[in-house]
Design goal:
Layout lengths: L10 E6 L20 E2 L3 E2 L1 H10 L4 E6 L4 H10 L10 E6 L13 H6 L2 H7 L3 E6 L3 E2 L3 H11 L3 E9 L7 E5 L5 E6 L13 E12 H12 L8 H12 L2 E5 L15 E2 L4 H10 L27 E3 L1 E2 L2 E2 L1 E3 L2 E2 L4 E3 L2 E3 L2 E2 L4 E2 L4 E7 L4 E2 L4 E7 L4 E2 L4 E2 L3 H7 L1 E2 L5 E3 L1 H7 L2
Parallel strand pairs: 1-4, 1-6, 4-5, 8-12, 14-19, 17-20, 18-21, 19-22, 20-23, 21-23, 22-24, 23-25, 24-26, 25-27, 25-29
Antiparallel strand pairs: 2-3, 6-11, 7-13, 8-11, 9-10, 9-11, 15-16, 28-29
InterPro entries: ADP-Glc_PPase, ADP_Glu_pyroP_CS, GlgC_bac, GlmU/GlgC-like_hexapep, NTP_transferase_dom, Nucleotide-diphossugar_trans, Trimer_LpxA-like_sf
Function: Involved in the biosynthesis of ADP-glucose, a building block required for the elongation reactions to produce glycogen. Catalyzes the reaction between ATP and alpha-D-glucose 1-phosphate (G1P) to produce pyrophosphate and ADP-Glc.
Keywords: ATP-binding, Carbohydrate metabolism, Glycogen biosynthesis, Glycogen metabolism, Nucleotide-binding, Nucleotidyltransferase, Transferase
Length: 418
């Protein structure tokens, strides 16, 4: 049960949203991973931001770096409703060489360090440091409460992951009280969890500190010439060794509606994982409930007309089955099945679309047949194009993953006619 004075009102959320996410291949050629579209209306970064807002945190900063134009535009349109006079703030912090004329953000810790003066102006008592590139629903107020109650110098959000996947995370050992006794960033051989040799306890990239303590640690780290300026490699291991760092299990603060049977967290960092997480939303009862009004995912509410379905004759019937279809879409005599269509997609007559994740303003030509695809924003699919039938031909023309998902961009389409 929450106290009468939520700790979140004393906190600032600092979202690290500068990474490219190179495993998403061409999807991040023009945008950072946090700006990649997800779920029909949202961007990936909206989940961390919505968690902060829904948790009662009204001071938020977002650090950007790699190809930030798309992300900054989205943040300006969708997250401009904070009221500074009510002790609220929303700051977008591009890498701007604040410390040195030749120094961009050198690591996750440096992104915070370079903005200490801005954070100090907002005067939060606590800092919640967040990765901006994961899909989950979490009440940070509960993590803040644990941090205060335990007297920890740092509290790290964590979850159990299969050991074979843990090498991509910071991995920790904890004692019976939940205190972290060792922390290894992205180990080649991840250590197992006590009592469960098949899993490791992985960091979610979520950290809570008292602001004054964090500033001291960042100053100390900036003076260390051997540091990589990273939370997982430098800041957290130092605190584990010299102070008190506590683990906060995601299961303690994950947000679930009555339709969600288990804690949901996804790193959609590969094309296969991205496709699967989006397509899963078309299930009758998906693992992630985007219709939960008690924990909404806030985003840019683009002004669009309703989705439209036209033509009703044999072989030319506008229809969508087991699909999510966003505003501004026109299904004109096409069939869409188990697919997710973002804003403004048009599927023309006789087209057949299945198992597709289609980003905004794609135009699908007549008689095209598309299966198991991810289509980037603004692509024009030629009439009669067939994808998903011939693996060899698909791999020659498009980016085909090991699991058979084809990523299609406009430059790939343009090469077809070259």
């Amino acid at each position: 049960m929450r106290s009468s004075a939520p700790i979140g009102r004393q906190a600032m959320a600092f979202v690290l949203a500068g990474g490219r996410g190179s495993r998403l291949l061409e999807l991040t050629d023009r945008r950072a991973k946090p700006a990649v579209y997800f779920g029909g209306k949202s961007r990936i970064v909206d989940f961390a931001l919505s968690n902060a807002l829904n948790s009662g945190i009204r001071r938020i900063s977002v650090a950007t770096q790699y190809k930030a134009h798309s992300l900054i535009g989205h943040l300006n349109r969708g997250w401009n409703f904070f009221r500074q006079g009510a002790n609220e703030s929303f700051d977008i912090l591009p890498a701007s060489q604040r410390v040195s004329e030749n120094q961009w953000y050198m690591g996750t810790a440096d992104a915070v360090f370079q903005n200490i003066d801005i954070i100090a102006d907002r005067a939060p008592k606590y800092m919640v440091i967040l990765a901006g590139d994961h899909i989950y629903k979490m009440d940070y107020e509960l993590m803040l409460q644990q941090h205060v109650d335990s007297g920890a110098a740092a509290t790290i959000g964590c979850l159990a992951v299969p050991r074979e996947e843990a090498s991509g995370f910071g991995v920790m050992h904890v004692d019976e009280s939940g205190r972290i006794i060792s922390f290894i960033e992205k180990p080649d051989a991840p250590p197992p969890m006590p009592g469960d040799p098949e899993k490791s306890l992985a960091s979610m990239g979520i950290y809570v500190f008292e602001t004054s303590f964090l500033f001291d640690q960042l100053d100390r780290d900036a003076a260390d010439p051997s540091s990589t300026r990273d939370f997982g490699r430098d800041i957290i291991p130092f605190i584990v060794k010299h102070g008190k760092a506590m683990a906060h299990h995601f299961s303690q603060s994950c947000v679930r509606s009555s339709n969600e049977t288990q804690a949901y967290w996804r790193d959609v960092g590969t094309v296969d994982a991205y496709w699967e997480a989006n397509i899963d939303l078309t299930d009758i009862v998906p693992d992630l409930d985007l219709f939960d009004q008690e924990w909404p995912i806030w985003t840019d509410s683009a002004i669009t007309p309703p989705a439209k379905f036209v033509h009703d004759e044999d072989g030319r019937r506008g229809m969508a089955l087991s699909s999510l279809v966003s505003g501004g879409c026109i299904i004109s005599g096409a069939k869409v099945k188990r697919s997710l269509l973002f804003t403004g997609v048009r599927a023309n007559s006789y087209a057949d679309v299945e198992n597709a994740v289609i980003m905004p303003y794609v135009d699908i030509g007549r008689s095209a047949r598309l299966k198991n695809v991810v289509i980037d924003r603004g692509v024009t699919i030629p009439e009669g194009l067939v994808v998903g039938d011939d693996p060899v031909a698909d791999a020659e023309r498009f980016r085909r993953t090991e699991k058979g998902i084809c990523l299609i961009t406009q430059s790939m389409i343009d090469r077809l006619g070259a």
